[in-house]
Amino acid sequence: MKVIVCGASGRMGKELISAIEGGYCSATLAAATDIVLPIVNCPAYTDIADVKEDADVIIDFSHHSATNSLVAYAIERKLPLIIATTGQTEEEKDAIKKASELIPVFYSGNMSIGIALLVSLVKQAVRIFPDADVEITEVHHNQKVDVPSGTALMLAEGVREAKGAESSFCIGRHENGKRPRGEIGIHSLRMGKVIGEHEVRIDTGSQTLTLSHKSHSRALFAEGALTAAVYLCGKENGLYSVNDMLE
Q: Residue 66 — very low, low, confident or very high, per pLDDT cuts 50/70/90?
């Protein structure tokens, strides 16, 4: 499986290249791109539009602002696309959905299979306790740009799906401190070099269920992205996620 890595000079891009060079999923590097020219043992570019090498899949760990150019290139080359960035605008999300009608697209706020399992467990718990209070806390390193994390939003969407479409979520607290009935709270902490921690507390009033996930190494996201690439290659056009792969 020949991979084009986008965002190759960033933290996750470097982790992904390390996993590929280590032989994970028998993948090989076709090319690497980044606005800062990557230093890699393969053809490197600052613009994905310049990539001419043959490839089987694109994995993007760059920035959501590159979404439009990325999907345009993937559609032109008819290549499966793994989007592992977060913070997309509604316009960018719409571009991803439209692209999935023409090519296979794997889009997830978190590439960890463990997180996918956490989302599944949270949904199951909320269905059993639909009237429970739910609060989500996420902790990341102090240089993370988007708040809340894409994973926290994934968890909130899972809770809302389990509770019903009428429920909503709130980032932080309201001015008067009170939480309206059924509202899902999301809290973000930024400190040190924390890779990623997510906790969901489900409180019925008589008992509390706490479900959590802690990332020990960014390698898990790189491995998840390569596993997703293997899963996506050969799939029909459509929009896929970690949950689809887990099922």
A: very high
User: In CATH, what number is assigned to the domain containing residue 222?
Assistant: 3.40.50.720
Q: Give the per-residue pLDDT at 230.
A: 95
Q: Are residues 182 and 238 both part of a single domain?
A: no
Backbone dihedral region for residue 182 (phi beyond 0: left; psi -120 to 50: alpha; all else: beta): left
Q: Which of 2, 63, 144, 187 is catalytic?
A: 144
| Per-residue pLDDT reduced to its tens digit, 103-135 | 999 998 778 888 889 999 999 999 999 999 999
144 part of the active site? yes
- Same domain for 157 and 234, yes or no, is no
pLDDT surpassing 90 at residue 172: no
Going 8 to 13 to 16 to 21, the CA torsion angle's sign is positive
Q: Which of 14, 123, 140, 213 is catalytic?
A: 140
User: DSSP strand E in 108-196: where?
Assistant: 133-140, 169-171, 184-190
Residues 14 and 33 in one domain: yes
